[in-house]
């Protein structure tokens, strides 16, 4: 495919030591060559691919030196877009980088639309749709765990799995087709049924497995909705502050994909916590008092994690007990705070109330126990298989919707075979499953969907 040459600033807005203007397209190298002056009159069109060059950017109209730059030159197809790509590294700061962008635009590049670099990678067959979406997830990924999920998808793990399932379906359909053509053999019908059932069940199991990872994927992407509950003065605000201070935002720098600074987020050992505003309050004081056990249960049900805080230096009260009641059956970590003070709480009773929930003692004042708390949070969500890095998580809502639809049509196929409906009806369900799975990786996708998807990207990606 042939496209015009696009350019954009591919570093995040704001300050930073360097900024990068990226060009992609047939004219990328010639445009750069016209505005670049290197020591010894080196010509960009003659240097080897994938090399970086020091020099100056010149305003062609005046011949004046505009910027000191490093230019990296990458010839297609071994580039992110599969086109010729030039990256101009200049000093950070809005004026410098805008001047560089203006110069290449004046020379004939077109300002890229949001996501257009990634869209080209897709259209040029460099990546499939699920990989393109993963790049988008990478840009938005908030923790390193979420980043791994996205990276796995960029590498095409999900695509491989989907392709395998589609292949299974195709082979099954082919098999059925052959048997329909030779109806004279008696055992053919029985065999067709058996194969159809086995293969369909296999495909459904795999789809089910993928859907089961979706919840975990969603958590990684969106954060674990977390509510801190406890009586007034037990230390809820202090806990919130401790978590925010201890856990810094993550900055990512993945070549070819994103140089975005990720927004601040409470990230506890790779588990993103989204501190939820429940009914307008992050930390929920006497929630049970105010709205009663039943209603607070409902509010708390929306949360993925509850941090229940108690005061070590105070007797347990009926309110404390009600909090346990309201949080029953949920993922709870019990925090007994203020261990620097005189003990008054009945720890045996606390342990009894906590049951299987994790129990941590802290002195937020003296910064004690915070590490243990973080370990408890991480342990809760990354124990066992869930923490395995090489798992294929599905975290994209479009993928989940398509998998759910595919699951329904494969179920239809299975119940069709079981109840003996005509084979051609079953074939329709199987074909539909195959199509739905195909949409995940961008086969048979309509143009408008593609535009919509890519316009969600940041500029310069
Ligand atoms: P909240 O009402 O539950 O949000 O409690 P705060 O976080 O506002 O804390 C109430 C008071 O307890 C404040 O004066 C805190 O400084 C104090 N506090 C918090 N954690 C500790 C602790 O571990 N030990 C001691 N001695 N005081 C604490
Ligand atoms: Zn408070």
TrEMBL record:
Protein family: Belongs to the TRAFAC class TrmE-Era-EngA-EngB-Septin-like GTPase superfamily. TrmE GTPase family.
PROSITE patterns, alphabetized: G_TRME
Lineage summary: Bacteria, Bacillati, Bacillota, Bacilli, Bacillales
Cofactor needs: K(+)
Gene3D superfamilies: P-loop containing nucleotide triphosphate hydrolases, Probable tRNA modification gtpase trme, domain 1, tRNA modification GTPase MnmE domain 2
Residues reported in the UniProt entry to bind (6S)-5-formyl-5,6,7,8-tetrahydrofolate: 22, 87, 126, 461
Enzyme class: hydrolase
Residues binding K(+): 233, 252, 254, 257
Protein encoded by which gene: mnmE
Cofactor comment text: Binds 1 potassium ion per subunit.
Binding site for Mg(2+): 237, 258
SUPFAM superfamilies hit by this protein: P-loop containing nucleoside triphosphate hydrolases, TrmE connector domain
Residues holding GTP: 233-238, 252-258, 277-280
Subunit and interaction comment: Homodimer. Heterotetramer of two MnmE and two MnmG subunits.
UniProt-listed Pfam families: MMR_HSR1, MnmE_helical, TrmE_N
GO cellular component: cytosol
Its job: Exhibits a very high intrinsic GTPase hydrolysis rate. Involved in the addition of a carboxymethylaminomethyl (cmnm) group at the wobble position (U34) of certain tRNAs, forming tRNA-cmnm(5)s(2)U34.
E.C. code: 3.6.-.-
Recorded GO MF terms: GTP binding; GTPase activity; identical protein binding; metal ion binding
Listed name of the protein: tRNA modification GTPase MnmE
A GO biological-process term: tRNA wobble uridine modification
Location of the protein in the cell: Cytoplasm
Domain TrmE-type G: 223-382
UniProt cross-references to InterPro entries, sorted A to Z: G_TrmE (IPR031168), GTP-bd (IPR006073), GTP-bd_TrmE_N (IPR018948), GTPase_MnmE (IPR004520), MnmE_dom2 (IPR027368), MnmE_helical (IPR025867), P-loop_NTPase (IPR027417), Small_GTP-bd (IPR005225)
Keywords: Cytoplasm, GTP-binding, Hydrolase, Magnesium, Metal-binding, Nucleotide-binding, Potassium, tRNA processing
């Amino acid at each position: 495919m042939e496209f015009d040459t696009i350019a954009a600033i591919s570093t995040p807005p704001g300050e930073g030591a360097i900024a990068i203007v990226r060009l992609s397209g047939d004219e990328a190298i010639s445009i750069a060559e016209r505005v670049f002056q290197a020591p010894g009159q080196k010509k960009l069109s003659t240097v080897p691919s994938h090399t970086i060059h020091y020099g100056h950017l010149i305003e062609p109209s005046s011949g004046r030196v505009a910027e000191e730059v490093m230019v990296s030159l990458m010839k297609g197809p071994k580039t992110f877009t599969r086109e010729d790509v030039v990256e101009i590294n200049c000093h950070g700061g809005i004026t410098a980088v805008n001047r560089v962008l203006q110069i290449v635009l004046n020379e004939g590049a077109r300002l890229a639309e949001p996501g257009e670099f990634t869209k080209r990678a897709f259209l040029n067959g460099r990546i499939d749709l699920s990989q393109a979406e993963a790049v988008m997830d990478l840009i938005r990924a908030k923790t390193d765990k979420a980043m791994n999920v996205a990276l796995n998808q960029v590498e095409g793990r999900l695509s491989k799995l989907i392709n395998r399932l589609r292949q299974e379906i195709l082979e099954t359909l082919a098999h059925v087709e052959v048997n329909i053509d030779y109806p004279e053999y008696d055992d053919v019908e029985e065999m067709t049924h058996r194969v159809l059932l086995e293969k369909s069940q296999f495909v459904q199991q795999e789809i089910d497995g993928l859907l089961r990872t979706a919840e975990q994927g969603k958590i990684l992407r969106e954060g674990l909705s977390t509510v801190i509950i406890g009586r007034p003065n037990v230390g809820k605000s202090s806990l919130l502050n401790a978590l925010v201070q201890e856990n810094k935002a993550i900055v990512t720098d993945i070549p070819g994909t994103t140089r975005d600074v990720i927004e601040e987020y409470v990230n506890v050992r790779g588990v993103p916590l989204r501190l939820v505003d429940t009914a307008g309050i992050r930390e929920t004081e006497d929630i049970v008092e105010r709205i009663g056990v039943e209603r607070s249960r409902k509010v708390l049900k929306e949360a993925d994690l509850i941090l229940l805080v108690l005061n070590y230096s105070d007797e347990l009260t009926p309110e404390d007990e009600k909090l346990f009641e309201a949080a029953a059956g949920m993922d709870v970590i019990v925090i007994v705070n203020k261990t620097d003070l005189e003990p008054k709480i009945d720890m045996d009773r606390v342990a009894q109330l906590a049951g299987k929930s994790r129990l941590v003692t802290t002195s937020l004042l003296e910064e004690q126990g915070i590490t243990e708390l973080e370990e408890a949070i991480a342990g809760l969500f990354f124990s066992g298989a869930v923490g395995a890095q090489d798992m294929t998580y599905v975290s994209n809502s479009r993928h989940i919707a398509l998998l759910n639809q595919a699951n329904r049509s494969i179920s239809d196929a299975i119940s069709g075979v079981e109840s003996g409906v005509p084979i051609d009806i079953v074939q329709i369900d199987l074909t539909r499953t195959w199509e739905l799975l195909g949409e995940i990786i961008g086969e048979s996708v309509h143009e408008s969907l593609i535009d919509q998807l890519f316009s969600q990207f940041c500029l310069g990606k």
